[in-house]
């Protein structure tokens, strides 16, 4: 029986998830399946609608008036609304 490669993130074999690829972005160096690569790339591509900074550096994004706002900007918005 041939040994299959396993995704280093989700631990699923390539026979279940398809071809694995070497992924060397975002300070990672792992053998990953396409689903895990997409999840990681999506995570790092999210940006705050107000400050345009990467969401992974600013906490989670909050839905506010049909926009995705980081927690830091949301705190600023709340402070401004409270002072009005």
Structure described in brief:
It contains three helices and four strands.
What would you note in describing this structure?
There is one protein chain. The chain is an alpha+beta fold. It has two domains: 1-45, no CATH class; 47-83, no CATH class. Helix content is 35%, strand content 19%. It contains three helices and four strands. The strands form two sheets. Strands 1-2 form a two-stranded antiparallel ribbon. A two-stranded antiparallel ribbon has the order 3-4.
What order do the helices and strands come in, and which of them pair?
Layout: H1 14-17, E1 20-23, E2 30-33, H2 34-45, E3 61-64, E4 67-70, H3 71-83
Antiparallel strand pairs: 1-2, 3-4
Q: In whole angstroms, how far apart are the ends?
A: 70 Å
Number of domains: 2
SSE run? HEEHEEH
This entry's quaternary arrangement is single chain
Helix content: 25-40%
Q: What structural category characterises the helix and strand content?
A: alpha+beta
What best-fitting shape do the alpha-carbon axes yield?
A: elongated
Number of DSSP E strands: 4
Low-confidence stretches: none
What is the mean pLDDT? 91
Content of β-strand: 15-25%
Our Rg estimate from Cα atoms comes to: 19 Å
- Major sheet details: 2 strands, antiparallel
Please tally the helical runs, counting DSSP H or I stretches of 4 or more residues.
3
Give the strand order, joined by hyphens, for the main sheet.
Answer: 1-2
